[in-house]
Specification:
- The chain is globular, with a radius of gyration of 23 Å.
- Helix 2 runs antiparallel to helix 3 and helix 7 crosses helix 8.
- The longest helix has 19 residues.
- The chain has 13 helices and 16 strands.
- The strands form three sheets. The chain has an eight-stranded mixed β-sheet, sandwiched between helices.
- The chain is of the alpha/beta class.
- It has two domains: 226 residues, Carbamate kinase, CATH 3.40.1160; 116 residues, VC0802-like (2-Layer Sandwich).
- It starts with a strand and ends with a strand.
Length: 423
């Protein structure tokens, strides 16, 4: 294990404005004697704006330049707050990235939506890391900026790219070996590159996964994800003001919580870390002295504390054969193939003799295309705007309290987990 290297990850909230960006630098100052590879997300709500830009571009909407103007205004205001000298080199670097967006927008949208999305939305991470790297260097630390696309090799499944682990490990080690005297590196989360050098993204909120990939490939000592919460909580404090901190969480519970939708960790993050026994710390960038949560090979979750996860805007589909025959293996094979084709993730599934029920995220465009495809062979009914509640380490009292006054359309239990689809 490379015990000298740690992976830090800072999300969009940690660099949302000038004060937040300076706070990141102050945190890194505390670890200046350690070797760090720092993964940084796009600043604030930049990804949301760039997603709007993609939609406006593809639809040839009049709002295109207005949205692009908002992206520019946000980043230039941040630059002026951090670098009063407008002759600083960072201004030219940021402007060059704006020009790259301009080049795309000047062309007719001839490629598919997912490809265009990855080429445009990925610029958010490039902007943030260029700015943060310049700020770190201005503060007296020596920081080496790295392009994640030179390290993370993927296939061409745009917006949900899959990692080529062998190539990624080779490229990552080569990248760092070019800078043997550097202690501090900064790179982007969320993005990678195909063998043809086209930019790909790893899925929404994928920067945690980037940190785990790099830790795996470099045999890092550990990963620290810096968040605006004290650590992994047993519930979202927006819904539960008295949410409790989980000081330790097992790999298995972390995977389950992330899979079911706990927003504090990306679902793909845990597996590469577990495979090499690399600990993951979730710490607060506000309360920087607090220990937060440890997820690791020797961690044990307190099973007496239930964990609650709400996923809103869910769609429940009920699929049955047209001839009222049993939902058998050939039917299920066809149904699953449709979900794979339309990239619709199943958050819960349950079957009876003649129907198959699935709860998914309510992505209107994907659901409409999926339902149209399924209806060529099956009867399909669906309910929208539902809530999926998952309780890990549940008990009867919590189930009754959280479902009170709600219509439960579907319930599924296992030994440690219960899920309720509610209206």
């Amino acid at each position: 294990m490379n015990t000298s290297l740690r992976i830090f990850k800072f999300g969009g909230a940690s660099v949302k404005d000038a004060a937040a960006a300076r706070n990141v630098v102050s945190i890194l100052q505390r670890f200046k004697n350690e070797r760090l590879l720092v993964v940084v997300s796009a600043m604030g709500k930049t990804t949301n704006l760039l997603e709007q830009l993609v939609a406006a571009y593809v639809n040839k909407d009049k709002s295109l330049q207005d949205i692009f103007g908002q992206v520019k205004t946000f980043h230039l205001a941040l630059l002026h707050a951090l670098f009063p000298d407008t002759k600083h080199a960072i201004y030219a670097e940021v402007n060059n990235l704006f020009v790259e967006i301009d080049w795309v927008l000047e062309e007719e949208p001839g490629r598919d939506y997912d490809f265009i999305y990855d080429q445009l939305v990925s610029v958010g991470e490039l902007l943030s890391t260029k700015i943060v790297a310049a700020l770190i260097n201005a503060g007296g630390l020596q920081c080496q900026w790295l392009d994640a696309r030179d390290m993370i090799a993927t296939d061409n499944r745009y917006r949900e790219a899959r990692i080529d682990w062998q190539q990624t490990e080779q490229h990552t080690r080569e990248c760092l070996s070019k800078h043997p005297t550097h202690k501090l590196f900064i790179t982007q989360g969320f993005i990678g590159s195909t063998s043809e050098n086209f930019t790909t993204t790893l899925g929404r909120e994928g920067s945690d996964y980037t940190a785990a990939i790099l830790a795996y490939c470099l045999d890092a000592k550990d990963v620290v994800i810096w968040k605006d919460v004290p650590g992994v909580l047993n519930a979202d404090p927006k819904y539960f003001p008295d949410a409790q901190l989980l000081e330790q969480v097992s790999y298995q519970d972390a995977i389950e919580l992330a899979y079911f939708g706990a927003s504090v960790i990306h679902p793909k993050t845990i597996q590469p870390l577990q495979n090499k026994g690399i600990p993951l710390h979730v710490r607060s960038f506000v309360q920087t002295d607090a220990e937060g949560t440890l997820i690791g090979p020797d961690s044990r979750t307190n099973a007496s504390i239930p964990s609650y996860i709400f996923k809103t805007e869910q769609t429940l589909l009920s699929i049955s054969a047209r001839d009222f025959s049993f939902i058998a293996e050939d039917h299920l094979s066809s149904i699953f193939a449709c979900f794979v084709q339309h990239r619709v993730r199943m958050n819960l599934m349950q079957n009876s003799a003649i129907s198959f029920s699935v709860c998914t995220d309510g992505d209107t465009l994907k659901i409409e295309a999926l339902v149209a495809d399924l209806r060529e062979r099956f009867h399909v009914r669906y309910n929208e705007h539902l809530t999926l509640l998952t309780i890990r380490h549940y008990n009867a009292e919590t189930m009754a309290r959280l479902s009170e006054g709600k219509s439960v359309l579907l319930e599924q239990r296992s030994r440690h987990t219960v899920q309720l689809v509610m209206q």
